[in-house]
Amino acid sequence: MKSLTIHNNLCYLPKIIDDYDRVYFSPKISSKAQKDFLTARFLHLKTLFPKIEMSDYDSPVPSDFLAWNSSEEKKLAKDRILPHQNRLLNDLQFNVPEGFSSFRKKAEKFLPDFYEETITPTDPAIINRLSYFFEQHQLASSYFETRNGLVGSNYSTQLSPFLSCGALDVRYLYNYVKKYEQEFGENKSTYWIIFELLWREFFYWHYQKHGNLYFSENGLRAEKNFSSFPKYTFKDLHQLESPRFFRAALNELEQTGILSNRVRQIFASIWVNDLNLAWRSGALLFEENLIDYDVYSNYGNWMYLAGVGVDPRGKRYFNLEKQMAMYDPNRSYEKKWSKD
Ligand SMILES: Cc1cc2nc3c(=O)[nH]c(=O)nc-3n(C[C@H](O)[C@H](O)[C@H](O)COP(=O)(O)OP(=O)(O)OC[C@H]3O[C@@H](n4cnc5c(N)ncnc54)[C@H](O)[C@@H]3O)c2cc1C
């Protein structure tokens, strides 16, 4: 009896399912929002592949942090990424640039016009979102101007939850953007969507190089520090004296499992700089609540903001007043999510 347990990467199932007698989907689920989101993806897959079962998170590896737990998944991990040519892959495995810009320059050279082998999503939630964002409303053409939005659902693609659990093949999305460019025109905005996807790849490869340093309090800097760190509940965090924006973000995270990129950046800056909390505690809060939780992007971004990651400028400080003046002068985000 050959069985396979997968923790994410749902999109590769059609490729491999026939090789196994039993297939278990066993994602890490900590919050209600994560459970609802992943159960919906699973239910859809079950209609396509009746033999899949959902099981409790079951990692043979002691660390919660390892995303690829089985050798099958390790093999699949290779397919997860954008730059796919062997030359680049071989090179990246040994020689990952430290900075995003040098990684981008290197990776962009290898991006094809189209990926030949991609997995077409059948999940209606994905198909509808792609069609809404791209063809119906052509929001991809103004993404560069809107991407820092805080409220609503049109400012960015909102595809990360599907990418993170693997229900959407990143190469399929890449082709989608390229086809859109052919039909509606290429501009800074369409380029910037690919640019952001490269950030995702960058953290993936960077992690392959630095491994568990992603979970050290000192990150890539100085001595390793794997000491324990506090875990905070939403209740604990609401009791702290904090800006209204921070409490609003706690509510949005708890209720929806999602935050915009700009909110994540400001939230992490308040966490580290104003509340002086350990960055790994913040990363853990996100890990347990985001429906798009991705080990590499989450810890990579937190490290970056805490000044122990790949940003040579050190700690990033986002001045709340300035941020609000630029991105939300009417404070509509706080009005929407704050209870006080
Ligand atoms: C502290 C912090 C923690 C984060 N944790 C996660 C996480 O666990 N999972 C996750 O997928 N993203 C994470 N991000 C990155 C980013 O916030 C989300 O990918 C983005 O908000 C998802 O919304 P979207 O799909 O509409 O993105 P879009 O703006 O439409 O971008 C398209 C895609 O590009 C990728 N992308 C965009 N920005 C980034 C970025 N900064 N880093 C890596 N990839 C990016 C995502 O796959 C995204 O779906 C984090 C950012 C911060 C600052």
Overview of the molecule:
With 340 residues, this protein is mostly helical. The protein folds into 3 domains: 3-78, no CATH class; 86-212, Serine Threonine Protein Phosphatase 5, Tetratricopeptide repeat; 218-337, DNA Cyclobutane Dipyrimidine Photolyase, subunit A, domain 3, CATH 1.10.579.10. Helix content is 51%, strand content 3%. The chain contains 17 helices and 3 strands. It has helices spanning 13-16, 32-48, 71-77, 86-94, 100-108, 124-136, 143-146, 160-164, 170-184, 188-210, 234-238, 244-256, 261-274, 279-289, 295-306, 320-327, 332-337; strands spanning 3-6, 22-25, 52-54. Strands 1-2-3 form a 3-stranded parallel beta sheet, with helices on one face. Residues 59-69 have low confidence and may be disordered. Bound molecules: flavin-adenine dinucleotide. Flavin-adenine dinucleotide binds next to helix 8, helix 10, helix 13 and helix 15.
Keywords:
single chain, 340 residues, mainly alpha, Serine Threonine Protein Phosphatase 5, Tetratricopeptide repeat, DNA Cyclobutane Dipyrimidine Photolyase, subunit A, domain 3, 3-stranded parallel beta sheet, 17 helices, 51% helix, binds flavin-adenine dinucleotide
